[in-house]
Write a structure and sequence with these properties.
7 strands, 5-stranded mixed beta sheet, about 350 residues
Length: about 350
């Protein structure tokens, strides 16, 4: 007698929909966890980049006798905040041999050495090269080069701290330098009383990096653990925005200046007209507000939730909350203010 076949019932439509719903719920629960892990990895990578840059600066001083300049500017550059002038190599170009990019630097080393004497601009042949160490994985826009100054400038996310003063033309004296023991910027119109906090008057506060160089770690008299060396910068939201451009020696591109002032008070605050960035397009809705004047000041920014990563002169990396006070933010960016920064970061 033949065995009776057991009939196999198929999934009903309701059962299929239930399974699909359960899978969707599981994906919904898993996705935030995956994103959190991904951001943690990106933040760790960014932190490592900043640590490597600080160590590279220490190595640079060991070899050269001082820290690298924020940017080189020869006698033909009358306004360092104008990217149409032939500004020279910046700190990021000069650090290449110290971040395992010696072969790239060797391609342009003669031009770098000749720039001050004869205006040699051939060093710019490497401006379009992407360098992983100069990019934060959390940011976007790395594939959109900056169009200014001849175009094809590769992106970056780190700005050398030129101090809480604005990035006026300072020549060899430097960006945000202070003379005669008096805190002041290089604006010939004297905007200090309008744009700087009243408590800062009379105090020193030079930048770690200055035009044409010359500062040393021992000039950071506030202590290397109390002085920011590098800030995070966000990449410009379109090709006309130079913010976040590693080889371009301009404020906002690879130089951080003016943090702790009335319109650059704390990290990630950028309202309409606040960043002074040449050629930019104002977009406060995405935190990239700007004034299309020359490049004088920029707010440190990142896509990390709640603040920015900063590299300190002792090689440490610290996350600075958006809630840091304007005073503390100012003092952390000045190398010789002689004051104790707050602990609100």
């Amino acid at each position: 007698m033949p065995l009776a076949r057991r009939s196999r019932s198929a999934f009903t439509l309701i059962e299929l929909l239930v399974v699909i719903a359960i899978i969707a719920i599981l994906i919904g629960l898993l996705l935030p966890a995956v994103q959190k892990v991904r951001e943690a990895a990106a933040r760790a990578s960014c932190s490592n980049n900043l640590h490597q840059l600080a160590i590279a600066c220490h190595n640079y001083q060991d070899v050269s006798g001082s820290l690298p300049p924020s940017v080189m500017a020869n006698s033909q550059v009358s306004d360092i905040s104008d990217y149409n002038q032939n500004f020279g190599p910046n700190w990021a170009v000069l650090l290449l041999p110290h971040i395992e990019q010696g072969a790239m630097f060797n391609q342009v080393s003669s031009s770098v050495n000749n720039y001050m004497a004869n205006d040699d601009a051939n060093w710019r042949s490497i401006q379009g090269n992407k360098i992983k160490t100069y990019l934060c994985p959390s940011d976007t826009g790395a594939d959109t080069p900056a169009n200014a100054a001849g175009g094809n400038w590769a992106r970056g996310n780190y700005g050398a701290n030129a101090g809480p003063g604005m990035h006026w033309n300072g020549g060899s004296v430097g960006v945000a330098e202070f003379t005669g023991g008096q805190w002041r910027d290089h604006n010939p119109s004297g905007f200090a009383s309008e744009y700087y906090p009243s408590w800062s008057a009379g105090s020193s506060g030079g930048g770690v990096f200055v035009v044409n160089g010359g500062t040393k770690l021992n000039t950071l008299t506030d202590g290397t653990s109390n002085t920011i060396m590098f800030d995070e910068l966000r990449i410009g939201w379109n090709g006309d925005d130079i913010r976040g451009t590693w080889a371009m020696g301009q404020c906002g591109a690879s130089i951080s200046a003016g943090n702790g002032r009335i319109d650059t008070p704390t990290p990630n605050v950028s309202l309409s007209g606040w960043d002074d960035i040449q050629g930019c397009q104002d977009n406060p809705a995405i935190g990239m507000g700007c004034c299309g004047c020359n490049s004088w000041q920029v707010t440190a920014k990142s896509r990390h939730t709640g603040g920015v990563l900063t590299g300190f002169a002792d090689g440490s990396v610290k996350f600075i909350s958006n809630s840091v006070s304007e005073r503390t933010w100012f003092l952390l960016h000045s190398r010789n203010d002689g004051q104790i920064p707050g602990d609100d970061f």
